[in-house]
Structures are given as C-alpha cells and as structure tokens.
Amino acid sequence: MNRTKRATALASIIAGTLTLGMMATTPADACTRMIYHGLDNLVMTGRSMDWRDPIPADMWIFPRGMTHDGGTGPRSVHWTSKYGSLLVTSFGIAASDGMNEKGLVANLLWLAGSDYPKPDKLEHTLSIAAWAQYFLD
C-alpha cells in the first residue's frame, strides 16, 4: 500500500473512532474544573457548567465591609466581608464563581449525586448558594 492510501486509511480510522466515541457519550450532570500549573508560578483554570439549559448569569461587585447572612433562616451564619470581591451569580441567587481583591478564586461545582448532611439543630447554617461568597469574603 502506498503512503497516500495508508494516510487516507489511518485518517478514516481516526475519524470513525472519534465519531463513535462522541456518539457513545452520555450527558453529564456535573461541572468540571481544570487547573494548569505552568512555569514561574503560572496557574490557569477553566471550568465547564454542564447543564441541560442555558444558565443566566449576573456579575456583581461587592466592597469590603458588607454584612451578609447565610440565607438559611433564623440559624443562618452572619458575617462582614474582609475583602472586596467580584461574583458571578447563576439564576439570580447562587454565587457560582468569583474572585476577591487578593486573587483568591472560588468556583461552585454541581454534581447530581451529591449528598449534603443535615445540620445539627444548634449549628449555624450556610446555604450552598452563599458558600462561594462566604469563602471569598
């Protein structure tokens, strides 16, 4: 077999394998975060939001010194932010991504099979929707 025929056959095998691989995938009900550590302390991150429907997003800037609560009712934790931050909210309620003025980054990921424990009745509570903001503040 000459080189051109071999290259064509190899390209066909690769294309067919990739096509079958894409057809065999199942929808994911989870988000993914990737981290790249490069030279000279370079850190790059990327994330996916694997959701069936488009996710509406809003961007908010919060100054330091703001008071917040955990969004869970009378037992909610309360705090005052130490750092200013930029947050992206999803569906107008959940802080899904953000960065504070010191460069600390938070990404809220979703996994359909997650199991969150029920809080003790005496503990202060924090909604998962407020976790990223609490962490960055």
Helix and strand arrangement:
Elements: H1 3-23, E1 31-37, E2 43-49, E3 57-62, E4 67-69, E5 78-80, E6 85-90, E7 94-100, E8 105-107, H2 131-136
Antiparallel strand pairs: 1-2, 3-6, 4-5, 6-7, 7-8
**Secondary-structure arrangement, i.e. CATH architecture:** 4-Layer Sandwich
Enumerate the strands of the largest sheet in spatial order, edge to edge or round the barrel: 3-6-7-8
Helix content: 10-25%
As for the CATH topology, it is: Penicillin V Acylase, Chain A
CATH class label: Alpha Beta
How many helices? The count is 2
The string of secondary-structure elements, in order, is HEEEEEEEEH
Q: Which stretches are low in confidence, meaning pLDDT under 50 for 5 or more residues running?
A: none
- Measured between the Cα atoms of the first and last residue, the distance is 66 Å
Provide a brief overview of the structure:
The protein is 20% helix and 31% strand. It has 137 residues and is of the alpha+beta class. It has one domain: Penicillin V Acylase, Chain A (4-Layer Sandwich), CATH 3.60.60.10.
Keywords:
single chain, 137 residues, alpha+beta, Penicillin V Acylase, Chain A, 4-stranded antiparallel β-sheet, two-stranded antiparallel ribbon, 2 helices, 8 strands, elongated
Explain the overall architecture.
By secondary structure, the protein is of the alpha+beta class. The chain has two helices and eight strands, in the order αββββββββα. It has helices at 3-23, 131-136, and strands at residues 31-37, 43-49, 57-62, 67-69, 78-80, 85-90, 94-100, 105-107. The strands form three sheets. It has a four-stranded antiparallel sheet with strand order 3-6-7-8. A hairpin with a 5-residue loop joins strand 1 (31-37) and strand 2. It is elongated.
